[in-house]
Each structure stands twice: as structure tokens, then as C-alpha cells.
Amino acid sequence: MFDDKTLAKSKELAGIREAAYDKMLERFGNRAPAGARHPETQSGLPLKSCYFPHDIEHIDFEQLGAPGSYPFTRGNLAAQYQLMSWANQPVIGFGLPEHTRARMDLLAERGMIGYFGQRFYNLVYDLVSHEGLDPDHKAARGRIGQCGMAVYSKSDMARLFDGMDLTKMNVVHISYYQVIPALAQYIAYAEDQGVAPADLRGNSMNWYHQSAYTGMSSFNPDQGLKLAVSLIRYCAEHMPRWNTTNFFGYGVEEAGGNAIHENGLMLAFGIDLMRGCTAAGLTADQVLPRFGFQIAQANDFFEEVCKIRALRRIWATTMKEQFGATDDRAMHVRIHTHTSGACLTAQQPLVNLIRTTLHAFGAALSGTQSMEVSAYDEALAIPTEDSATLALRVQQVIQEETNVTAVSDPLAGSYYVEALTDQMATSALELVEQIEAQGGYVAAQQSGWIRRQVENSASRWRDMIDDGQKRIVGMNCHIVEEDEQSEPTFKVDEEVERIAIERIVELREKRDAKRYEKAIAAFADSTQALAKTNLADFNGHGLMETAIEAARADATTGEMMGVMKTAFGWAAPHEY
Amino acid sequence: MTDRIRVLLAKPTQDCHDRGVRYVARKMRDAGLEVIFTNFLLASEIVDTAIEEDVQVVGISSSSGGHMPVFEDLIAGLKANGLEDVLLIGGGVIPKEDQESLKKWGVKAIFGPGATAEAAIEMIETHFGGSPGSTA
Fold first, then answer.
1. Which of A155, A419, B66, B96 has the fewest other C-beta atoms within 10 Å?
2. How near does any CA of chain B get to the CA of A31, in Å?
3. B113 and A146 in contact by Cβ < 8 A?
4. Which of A44, A59, A74 lies at the terminal end of a domain, its last residue?
5. Which pLDDT tens digit goes with each residue over B21-57?
């Protein structure tokens, strides 16, 4: 990118500067922090203490391109936020569906807004639903409406969305392994409202891959891949506006992985999933435009920005070269940023507002498409109305007041940012190579290799805090004596459990038993057929269709998941 | 070998936040404790494992709520099987008022956000009156 004269001058000036820096280091002697001598990123990548043009002389200008052109390092589209800002997409979900709805309405009233004036509702299901149970199961006690909404049926969907125009909003269903039952219930509810699946907009998580690094029970990973492809296939045929799959990079960093793990694992899984889709007869241009990412934005400011720029590049080049993507949209990395939860502290919780603001600011500079900013009290409880509003205000202040929205990819051209983006890309590709050598993501998941990488990284992080190498305000430095939990924390209404159980019992009593029996048996047959087949002979086996019919017949999440657990195997992740 | 303290660390399977407890398990192993880590759906599974593995310590990690029914069932289950002497500890995100109730129920210590693994190891060591690797 530079001519020889510039490069020569760059090296000369860098030499002079380095000599001066070394002298200063010498004067500091032992008092110099370790990072002054050997700076590195949170992931452990070596940094220089200052960057020059020759540090990026190996980077071809073509690799950077322009916002909106391949390989999309600088952004998916020519316009970043000039015409439309990123979408506010805070996570919402607790208590009964009515409680969740009240919070949706509150945030909408306080200015939460998505694209083209429409709202994006990012709704999380409760712990009972994630586990594939109904609220009257013994293990549900204490978890109903906790960490998410108590939504288990088509009737609960009606309570949640009552009176809303489903064609004018975007609904993200943060469902884990119950993704198929949850989508089926939403589709069945939409049909009752006269809305066809083709007119629905939103996301399913399709998160089977997360069992490689998170702690909950799950389906056997082999089966998970087939289930993911089933949903993708159904949507490719019937729901062209539905985003089928979310790459849960955020969970990698939350579980203790670093930025390189996040990128590398997501690309490795993308390769495995695309192999699965291809085997099932789907093409890259058909399915990739409806894939999205949930990416963490954590404490190492520049590394996290460069992570996203690098991810856009390696995803686009891999999907083009390896899977023949030709449509730009099939090469784009569409990102929902989730500011880091793991970086927040229970100590001095208001300080978290400062952390989340920095995270959100970094995400804005990296060109994210939508954002959830963690509330300052999330290390303690479900956010209160006030803390959830403040989290939305963090986004709004950056959007409305800072003018960072004026320019696309504003950090481009920084010697440091370009050098680190390249380092991040190379390191993630090395990780992908290691995983491919083991037979791909699912194989590395089954052997426990992925979990070990993430766990070792989590351990390194905590050791660095405990020995003071990594400083966290309020936790290992700048500590104050404080009353534990001096901030008011949120509590789910105590009546939620009783009401949720009453509702599910009533639903089972009132539904058409014959229709239900027939529908759940047909669903069970299709799960058995899918479980026994391999992707090469895959034809969908009517899995989604029979799930939707079961939802129409008022099957509950617990009932549908019971059938699926029998067919696909269900165990704690470390037992696979 | 038989005199090493045996610890069962357990996490509800509904609760994905297992980063902390896995770290604690690793540190306890490094300190010479025998550690069994498992996920559970029902408290009765913890009781069964505690009996099978003949543990002296049971630690429950909870970061998503729902811990009170777990401890309630667990304590009743241990009692019903004559395991009242098992040292019971907890960790994760457990509100202060719940911590007070849990202590009344016999939970000896709760290690919340910011607590070190070393603190838990030291507590166990003190309880058994020896070095962390020994019940002697």
C-alpha cells in the first residue's frame, strides 16, 4: 500500500522511536509494567508498542477493499450508519408472557427501534423451556419465568403477542435446543392470526453447536447438526424472510474463550454446517444469506474491533472459495453485538455502565448490525426497568450524540488496527485448520477438544486476575467496602409459578385429545426417521411440518422435547 | 490415597454458567482434592452421586436462580440417607437474603462473585483440620 520511499522512511522513524522507547524502558527498570516490554492482546497475541506503515506492508489493499465490497473487511454495505443506525435489540424475557410483553412495550415506548422504523423483539425463553420441560415437571420448581419468559405453547404465544401485527416486527426467539418446538408454536400462532410463515420476520437460534462450550444438557452433536439443517431446509422453502441460524460466538467468550476462539470456532462450525447443508442438497447462496452471528464485545477494545473486521474477511473468503458463494449477502457477516456479561462485576455494579458503554462504542466502530447492551445489574439479577432503560440509553447516546455514525469503518487505515485485524484473521484460520485436521467442528466437539480449549482459556483469564496481571476495577484493585447488593435488584413475581402450572394443566385438559395424540405421534415418527438417516439421504423427513401440526394441536414445549430427546439422545455435554 | 478429601461439585443442567465451577474444580484438583463434577436435573441425583462416590463435601453452583428448591431437596435427601455430616457449600449468584436462609439450613459457606477458589479450598481444609489433600 506504500511506495518504497515511504517504507524506507517508516522503518527509519520506527528505528529512532524504538531506540528512544528502549531508553525510557531502561530508566524505568523494574518499575516498568510487564506490558510495556511485551505488550499483548487479551488473547495473548504479541503487539508492538507503536505501529508504522511498514507494519502493514504485507497487507494487500485488495484484502481491505471498501465497505460493501469483497472481502467485506470494512463492512457489509457501502453505507454503515449514515442512512440507518444499528438496530436496538435488547434481550427481554422474564416471568409470564404478560410480564415480558410489558417490558417489550416499555422499551418500545422508550425509543427501542430497529430497521425501517420496525421493532426487533429479542425474546429469551426461561430455564424450564431451555431444558425442554413443562412447568409442572419436578425440576421446574424455582426456574419458571427465571432468566427468560415462561412461554411453553401456542396459547402462551397468544398472551405474549396479543394485538401485535406480526408482519410489522422482527422477533428473535432466543431458544436453545427447543428451537424447533418454539418456532413451530410461533408459526402455529401466526396462522391463527392469518399470517403465513412466509410473512414472518425474525430469527431462530439453531444453537446446537453451543453445546461444545456451554454447560447445559443437549442433543447428541451429530443429531444436532441434522436438526440444524432440517430447520434451515424448511425455512429455505417456506420462510424466505426468516433468519435460520445464529452463530453463538458470544457464548464462546462468555464461557472463557478468547477473541481468536470466538472467530475460529464460528468459522469452523460454519464450514461443518455448510458441508451438512450441501450434503442435504442446499446451496451456499440459498442458505447463507439467512445466517447471522451473535458476537461479544469485551474489554480489549482494539482486539474486539479487529476481531469483527477479521471475521468479516475470513468468513467471506471461506464461503466464496470453499462453498461457491456468489451472492454478496451469502458472504456477509451480519452481527448482533452482545456486550460482554462475563466482564461485568457484582462489585460496584454501577461501574458496569462504564464498561458496557466502552463495549458498545467499540461495536459501533466495528460496524455491527444490531446491539444488546448488558444492564449494569446483570451480575446480580434480571435487569430492573431502570437498568434496562439505562442500557438502551447507552446505545442511544452513541447513536445520537457522538457523530461516530457519520463515517463507515472509521478506524480503517490505522496501522495498528490493520495489523491487528490481519493477525486476528491469521490466528483464527490457524485454529480452523487445527479443527479441520480433527475432522471438523462436530468431531472436535465430540472429543471434548473444543471444551478443553475454552476451559484452558477461562482458567488463564482467572489466574491472571488472581495474580494481579489483569486488573479489574472493584474486583482486584480500587476496591471499596460496600454493602453487598446496595442497588435494588429485580425479583420475578412469586405468583408466576402457580399461574404457569395452572395454565399448562388447563391447556392439556381442554385441547382436542385425539388431534393432539395423532399430531404428536406423527412428530415422533419424523424424529425417529431423521435420527436414523444421514445427511446424504436427508429429505427433511417432515420434521418441521409435523412439529407445526403438533403446535397447532396445542402440544407443549415439554411434550415435543420429550419426543425429541428420545429420538436424538440427551445428556450433559461433557458426557458426549 | 483413601484419605484425600472427596468433593462433589454439581451444577443444575438448566444453568449454562458453568465457567466458575469448572475453574473451582480444576483448582481443587490442583490442590490435591478428589473432585467429581457433574450436572444434575433433580437434587436426588446429587444425593445418589454423593452416596456412590462416598464424598465428604458437596458444592452446588447456581448462577440463574432456582437454588433454594435445590438446597431444600438436597438437604432433605442427605438427611434421609444419613449423610448429615457431609459438608455443604454453595457458589455463584445467590442473593444475600437467600444466603442467610441457607446458612440456617446448614450450608456452611457461599462463595459469590469475586471469591477465589483458594478461599473455598482453605475453608474445606480448615473444616477437616488438615492439609487440603488430607482428611487426617
1. B96
2. 27
3. no
4. A59
5. 999 999 999 999 999 999 999 999 999 999 999 999 9
